[in-house]
């Protein structure tokens, strides 16, 4: 869970810091640094609003728990989070092209009209979007205990590393390109999304909402139990110790969606997700290459 929280906060905080950094750098370049404080005011207000949202969301989750509908809420959050994380991957595939133009286009109007309120609101909404997504993802990876994710080293570490990356990026000392960072983090985001998707399927099967043609396709508990409790049960039933600790299983479950005894549907959904994502990304890349290779009207006229 800590690694998941780290990757999520790193990704969300990095995007927010990059956009805020682009805006403040732009204001400095056009010799209007006096507006920077309004950008940071909007960003700080969004941070406090995100914390408030986390509290409200936790109250809502607790309300569902008191009504006996907590599991349905958790499954819904898992599926929605998997969809949002997948959307992140497509954004990362763009390698942040156009980020600078999108971030600064509105500020030209704000500077011209001196619209301070507009600057604050724009910065507020940019950062709040990342905060909302973070709260939602934390609810998914912790099963509804948002505070648990916020108190661990993962959330704090993700913010610290994102801040360091953004700082060195704008100082011009970053050796690795920003697009490479998004590619690497995108790979781990895919793993988290696939894991949430499969965990949601498993919960629905445990609730007998979904059936299974083969409830246990294989059993790797002897090799790697997915939880210390599974390891204890295995030792109790067989008198032998698994090859690896259940703590290792927890790590792989959090990162890869590992299950020591999955149903055939879980395995199929897991690998179909990767195959579908690969096909969609490849199709998008092929379309871009085709568009780039297509001569523009002006080039065609010159050739004639």
Automatic annotation (TrEMBL):
GO CC terms of this entry: high-affinity iron permease complex
Main location: membrane
Annotated InterPro entries: FTR1/Fip1/EfeU
Keyword rRNA processing: no
Membrane-spanning parts: 6-27, 39-60, 72-93, 114-141, 153-170, 182-204, 268-285
Recorded coiled-coil stretches: none
Any one Gene Ontology molecular-function term assigned to this protein's record: ferrous iron transmembrane transporter activity
Swiss-Prot/TrEMBL keywords: Membrane, Transmembrane, Transmembrane helix
Membrane topology classification: Multi-pass membrane protein
PANTHER family per UniProt: IRON TRANSPORTER FTH1, PLASMA MEMBRANE IRON PERMEASE
Family to which this protein belongs: Belongs to the oxidase-dependent Fe transporter (OFeT) (TC 9.A.10.1) family.
Protein name as annotated: High-affinity iron transporter
